[in-house]
Design a protein that fits this description.
single chain; 7-stranded mixed β-sheet; 16 strands; 36% helix; disordered N terminus
């Protein structure tokens, strides 16, 4: 209990200035006198991205509401739009004119690209997606790029002493992005790509895959495709994937079919008892695993904008975030996810597996 109290005190010490409190309802930009606030720019009205934006909003405001009891707080004002690619520049300038001392958003890649093209970024601004090139002014980026996870997985496999890889992907655009990122990092680390296999629901493509020393398998797929592929791969081949194959620990049927696969994901989904995770409230209504990740992104976005407002980024990082271990590379906040493995129908981190009951050898999955 004393350790938890000390940890909470250290967490609160990060927010030495510019504390924020959340408004109970999104506030539209007004024509009144500018009021200092933190602007949260999201495509809440978008038919495609609206639900994702709402999950981010909930997480951001859940974190902000924890600071409402502290003096000198800046309110959070939510600015919503239909299409960030078209609306974000106008929305950003409305927020600045309305008194925004800091801005979080946009959420989409197109919106981030439009904002990155702006020459005047006068206040700390945290885009929640990839920003290409050198950002102007005080523009930073933080997001959930799946390519970063694929590169981290390649590094994990290399650290386990593996030097050859078989890459299995589908024709989906996301799968190709995962494949490219993994192979790029694998080649950069001196590894060799033995084979590239395109899976089109025909398991015959795996007929000649045998157990080979020094070889990893990377699945650039989602959970559904991974369940179809896993039974056709030799048990002794180390198999790796990204968070795309994890839909939560409540789905035991899916997870049993993925036994032995190593992957990376957020502490928010994998480590409920982690001190950084326990501090923040869970969503009131249940969310899917994908939307839980966006909720966690919102929490950490709030924490990062507080550090930018306080001018404490250099001294407060790395940050133990609910979305991962966060460091700053230039203007990009990079997130390092937590390694885990499916064991007996549950996704478990290394520390959890170390304390789990042992199973008979003939029932165990591939050992880490």
């Amino acid at each position: 209990m004393q350790r938890m109290f000390l940890w909470l005190s250290a967490l609160l010490a990060l927010y030495v200035s510019g504390f924020a409190s959340a408004t109970s309802e999104p506030l539209p930009p007004g024509d009144d006198k500018p009021v200092p606030h933190i602007a949260l720019l999201l495509p809440l009205k978008s038919a495609v991205f609206g639900s994702a934006a709402e999950a981010v909003r909930q997480g951001f405001q859940a974190a902000a509401e924890m600071e409402m009891r502290l003096p000198g707080g800046l309110p959070v004002r939510v600015y919503s739009c239909f299409d960030e690619g078209k609306d974000i520049a106008v929305l950003y300038h409305q927020a600045i004119a309305g008194g925004a001392r800091a801005v979080v958003g946009p959420l989409t890649r197109s919106g981030a690209g439009v904002l990155a093209a702006e020459k005047d970024i006068p206040v700390p601004t945290l885009a929640l997606n990839v920003v290409e090139g050198v950002p102007a002014g005080q523009l930073y980026s933080f997001g959930m790029a799946v390519e970063a996870e694929a590169r981290q997985v390649a590094q994990l496999a290399v650290r386990q002493g593996l030097h050859q890889a078989i890459v299995i992907a589908t024709r989906a655009q996301l799968a190709k992005r995962l494949q490219f990122a993994f192979e790029e990092e694998w080649n950069r680390s001196g590894g060799t790509i033995l084979r590239e296999i395109e899976f089109d629901n025909d398991p015959a493509v795996f007929a000649d895959i045998a157990e080979m020393p020094d070889t990893a398998v990377f699945l650039a797929t989602d959970a559904e495709k991974a369940r179809l592929i896993r039974p056709y791969l030799p048990n002794k081949l180390p198999i790796f994937a990204t968070s795309q194959i994890f839909v939560g620990n409540s789905d035991n049927l899916t997870n049993y079919d993925l036994n032995g696969i190593r992957f990376v994901d957020m502490p928010w989904l994998l480590q409920a008892d982690h001190p950084a995770v326990m501090v923040y409230p869970r969503p009131v209504a249940p969310l899917s695993a994908d939307h839980e990740r966006l909720y966690a992104l919102g929490i950490d976005a709030f924490r990062l904008i507080q550090l930018l407002l306080a001018g404490k980024v250099d001294t407060a990082l790395p940050l133990d975030g609910v979305s991962g271990h966060i460091e700053l590379d230039g203007r990009n906040f990079q997130r390092m996810a937590v390694p885990a493995m499916f064991t007996q129908g549950q996704a478990q981190t290394r520390s959890a597996r170390a304390h789990a009951p042992q199973v008979p050898p003939d029932q165990s999955a591939v050992k880490p």
